[in-house]
Amino acid sequence: MKKKLTRKPARAIQKAKFEMSPSMQARMEKAMISIGNIAGQQARKDDKVQREARLAIAETFDAWIDWLEDEAPDQIEEVFFELGCFATATNRRRMFKHTKAPEGVAERAQEQVDQWKAEEKFAISAEATITAAETDAKNGIRTAE
Question: Is-above-0.85 flag for pTM?
Answer without folding.
Answer: no
